[in-house]
TrEMBL record:
Region named Disordered: 1-103, 540-611
Lineage of the species this protein comes from: Eukaryota, Metazoa, Chordata, Craniata, Vertebrata
Coiled coil (residue ranges): none
Keywords: Nucleus, Phosphoprotein, Repeat, WD repeat
Descriptive protein name: WD repeat-containing protein 46
Domain BING4 C-terminal intervals: 441-519
Purpose of the protein: Scaffold component of the nucleolar structure. Required for localization of DDX21 and NCL to the granular compartment of the nucleolus. Part of the small subunit (SSU) processome, first precursor of the small eukaryotic ribosomal subunit. During the assembly of the SSU processome in the nucleolus, many ribosome biogenesis factors, an RNA chaperone and ribosomal proteins associate with the nascent pre-rRNA and work in concert to generate RNA folding, modifications, rearrangements and cleavage as well as targeted degradation of pre-ribosomal RNA by the RNA exosome.
A cellular component annotation (GO) from this entry: small-subunit processome
UniProt feature, compositional bias: Basic and acidic residues: 573-584
Length: 611
């Protein structure tokens, strides 16, 4: 009789894992080997596993429980590296460089660019402030060395005029100079015959590229005098007394018979400023955006052209003002008066900064060089004098002219031009910072009319002369700086570059209150005023709050360290200290003696109020 098999009895028994694996067919690259228990099935070559059982065990370190992963091989002591001393650099060929290191710079050239005053010692201050000052000095020295080294890149050199075999250069006429120079320089000499609307006043732009001139009978014109391209030409039907470019050649200020007018480079009138009436002379301060005007009424007015407001209107109290110039170094306006004095003005002061007695008669013309160290004046006494403006205001040299100079002008390199009647005389000095020598004239030129305006063209060896017969452009070798700063005054800038420069100049505008005689005083600390303010504060408070460090309350818990509670605790301590100081000061003061009562006087009820 068959029995039912038990559940799970027909399930075949599980074979061993090694036995259950099927034998794979041998490949052609495999060798015929018998499989072992560890290698049951043949296959492609595999990485052999290291037998850890056969590896000899290393003794454990009893001091440290962490296993070191660094293999402990017999280490060979390494030889220390020998530091090579920096020797002379050699090229690829092995030859030694004969000019190793940076190029040496002469000390005289470095001093020309250095703006530090080594005679003044650093003040005794905190260590942090002193370290900053020393770092600033080191940086300034590095900048001066770089500027002196980059001076070699200035390819242009100033011109000069020399006579042959001791020939006097004053006898050389303009026709001879035009024949000797190249075609481009010869084209800079020209004459404009404008007798119908003369006499003329003229002005060059800061870049030296554009020329504006105005005639007494209303003729106003502006042109690019290098290419002879006319920008605008109008007739204002009114007397023109003076003309000036503003911060760029796009704006033009014209002092007409009654009021001050502003025109653009197309001849369109933009503004009519009626608060500036009966103007005789104009001067523009480029770094302050100020237009200074001198009037017949004796007022000196400063107009801020960036905002269109009058900054200051000063009464000179010297009658009619028709002699005015500016100092390019410190932007101080200098006025010549009929009593022989020259006054120096700033919009921050209602009184003149200084007064210089120059001549025994009235002053006819005043001019200041580009460095601000020398001033030239001419008066009705036919005297031409050179003054030192570095604090002494003493005359350095003088010369008597046959007719007296009615107009003066300094060039960028220190040449002095004087217009006497219809003759223009030019004197030269030893250099840019030296005063011109008045013994022998450098150049002389006779015009077709009396001189009414003089100005040297920036960055060009050209002198512009406005006279009763028109405009004359003279060639004066060695008058201007041969190299210009392309970021400041670029004669070849485009319209886009001019607009970007204008925005930058407006952002860097200097306030009118900073105009003073010595601009270097702005970077110094006014010790006298500081001590005076400290003394007044000490008298007002009764104690010096800087002697003791301020009270810092300790933090507390449970919400007692809030901002309001900290302020209250600080104020409480300050009030207590203030009471103690006041109490001590009162005790130190001498007590007033009480008035003695007369003998036999009866007591009164009001005695209680007597102190």
């Amino acid at each position: 009789m068959e029995t039912v098999p038990k559940p799970g009895s027909r399930v075949p028994p599980k074979k061993d894992k090694l036995q259950g694996k099927k034998k794979k067919p041998r490949r052609y690259w495999e060798e015929e080997t018998t499989p072992t228990a560890a290698e049951a099935s043949p296959g492609p070559p595999r990485k052999r596993k290291r037998n850890r059982e056969l590896r000899p065990q290393k003794p454990k370190n009893t001091h440290s429980t962490k296993k070191s992963r660094i293999s402990k091989k017999p280490q060979v002591p390494k030889k220390p590296r020998e530091r090579r001393t920096p020797g002379p650099q050699r090229s690829l060929s092995g030859a030694q460089d004969p000019f190793a290191g940076p190029a040496p710079v002469p000390v005289e050239v470095v001093q020309k660019f250095c703006r530090l005053d080594k005679s003044k010692k650093l003040p005794r201050s905190e260590t942090k402030i002193r370290s900053r000052l020393e770092a600033a000095e080191v940086q300034e020295e590095e900048i001066s060395v770089k500027a002196a080294r980059s001076e070699l890149l200035l390819a242009e050199e100033p011109g000069f005029l020399e006579g042959e075999d001791g020939e006097d250069t004053a006898k050389i006429c303009q026709a001879d100079i035009v024949e000797a120079v190249d075609i481009a320089s010869a084209a800079k000499h020209f004459d404009l015959n404008l007798r119908q609307f003369g006499p003329y006043r003229l002005n060059y732009s800061r870049t030296g590229r554009h020329l504006a001139f105005g005639g007494r009978r209303g003729h106003v014109a502006s042109l690019d005098w290098v290419t002879k391209k006319l920008m605008c030409e109008i007739n204002v039907m009114e007397a023109v007394r003076d003309i000036r470019f503003l911060h760029s050649e796009a704006l033009l200020a014209v002092a007409q018979n009654r009021w001050l007018h502003i025109y653009d480079n197309q001849g369109i009138e933009l503004h009519c400023i009626r608060r500036c009436d009966r103007i005789t002379r104009l001067e523009f301060l480029p770094f302050h955006f100020l237009l200074a005007t001198a009037s017949e009424t004796g007022f000196l007015t400063y107009l801020d052209v960036s905002v269109g407001k009058i900054v200051a209107a000063l009464n000179a109290r010297a009658g009619r003002l028709d002699v005015m110039t500016q100092n390019p170094y410190n932007a101080v306006i200098q006025l010549g008066h009929s009593n022989g004095t020259v006054s120096l003005w700033s919009p921050a002061m209602k009184e003149p900064l200084a007064k210089i007695l120059c001549h025994r008669g009235g002053v006819r013309a005043v001019a200041v060089d580009s460095t601000g160290t020398h001033m030239a004046t001419s008066g009705l006494d036919h005297q031409l004098k050179i003054f030192d403006l570095r604090g002494t205001f003493q005359p350095l040299s003088a010369r008597t002219l046959p007719q007296g100079a009615g107009h003066l002008a300094f060039s960028q390199r220190g040449l002095l031009a004087a217009g006497t009647g219809d003759v223009v005389n030019i004197w030269a000095g030893q250099g840019k910072a030296s005063p011109p020598s008045l013994e022998q004239p450098y150049l002389t030129h006779r015009l077709s009319g009396h001189v009414h305006g003089l100005q040297f063209c920036p960055f060009e060896d050209v002198l512009g002369v406005g006279h009763s017969g028109g405009i004359t452009s003279m060639l004066v070798p060695g008058a201007a700086e041969p190299n210009f700063d392309g970021l400041e005054s670029n004669p070849y800038r485009s319209r886009k570059q001019r607009q970007e420069w204008e925005v930058k100049a407006l952002l860097e505008k200097v306030p009118a209150e900073l105009i003073c005689l010595d601009p270097r005083a702005l970077a110094e600390v006014d010790v006298i005023s500081l001590e005076q303010e400290k003394k007044e504060r000490l008298e007002r408070l009764g104690y010096d709050p800087d002697t003791k460090p301020p009270f810092q309350p300790k933090p507390k818990q449970k919400g007692r360290s809030s901002t309001a509670s900290l302020v209250k605790r600080k104020r409480k301590v300050m009030d207590e200290e203030h009471r103690d100081k006041v109490r001590q000061s009162l005790e130190q003061q001498p007590q007033k003696q009480e008035k003695a009562k007369p003998v036999g006087a009866r007591p009164s009820a009001l005695d209680r109020f007597v102190r």
